[in-house]
Amino acid sequence: MLFHYHYWTPFLEETERYYESQGFEVYQRLGKFEGNFQSFDPPLSWDDFREKGILFRIIEMRKGNVNITFGYGKKVMFDHIGLIKTDKEHDQICRKVDAIGWDVNIGERRTFISTPYGFRVELQTHPDVLEASDLTIIENMKVQTKEMELDDTFYKIFSLNPDVLESKKGAIPSITNVRMTGIKVQNSKDPNGVWLSSI
């Protein structure tokens, strides 16, 4: 299941505010302050730390089966999408991508796979990254990919349906559109250029 996307952005507060207005809740904020990584999770709000010059590594927001993260970057940059997989599926995917020479970084909590399309894929086997009491899901995502469109190899490796993840070739990898079910939003653009809509 496609459940996640991550951006680097200079528009942290604006991005958080946008997704809050769409019904998402802040799960965590982790940032570097005075040389150390610290948590600035709710109930803290931006009024509590806006002027402290915190370098946020990650802000995580959740609604149902959708998990969105973003961290500070000097410019807007799409980094990765995330898929929920079983342990068995995870291991099968890692063997397949290793066989074709893509880089695989297996971590304690998640695995990252570098693709030739200009973005990474996160494999997640821990369902606690979701708030499953809510039925919100990503129904469709459109990505702009570097140099080539996603091909059959990509879809077969990750067991993804092209109706869920569509692609077109472009100079800058990015997410152009995300359509969700279980959420009511007006067709609108987040501060990083992602159009969000609902069915």
Features:
single chain; 199 residues; alpha/beta; 2,3-Dihydroxybiphenyl 1,2-Dioxygenase, domain 1; 9-stranded mixed sheet; 17% helix; 44% strand
Task: Detail the topology: elements first, then pairings.
Blueprint: E1 2-9, H1 12-21, E2 25-33, E3 36-39, H2 46-49, E4 55-63, E5 66-72, E6 77-84, H3 87-99, E7 104-106, E8 111-114, E9 120-124, E10 137-146, H4 152-158, E11 165-170, E12 174-181, E13 188-189, E14 195-198
Parallel strand pairs: 1-5, 6-9, 10-11, 12-14
Antiparallel strand pairs: 1-6, 2-3, 2-4, 4-5, 7-8, 8-9, 10-12, 13-14
By DSSP, the count of extended strands is 14
Count of all domains? 1
User: Order of SSEs, N→C?
Assistant: EHEEHEEEHEEEEHEEEE
Structural class estimated from helices and strands = alpha/beta
Measured distance between first and last alpha carbons: 18 Å
- CATH C-level category: Alpha Beta
Organism: Pseudalkalibacillus berkeleyi
InterPro entries: Glyas_Bleomycin-R_OHBP_Dase (IPR029068)
Protein name: VOC domain-containing protein
Provide a descriptive summary of the structure in words:
- The chain is of the alpha/beta class and 199 residues long.
- It has one domain: Roll (2,3-Dihydroxybiphenyl 1,2-Dioxygenase, domain 1).
- Helices cover 17% and strands 44% of the residues.
- The protein contains four helices and 14 strands.
- It has helices spanning 12-21, 46-49, 87-99, 152-158; strands at residues 2-9, 25-33, 36-39, 55-63, 66-72, 77-84, 104-106, 111-114, 120-124, 137-146, 165-170, 174-181, 188-189, 195-198.
- The strands form two sheets. A nine-stranded mixed β-sheet has the order 3-2-4-5-1-6-9-8-7, with helices on one face.
- α4 (152-158) links the parallel β10 and β11 (165-170).
- The mean pLDDT is 93.
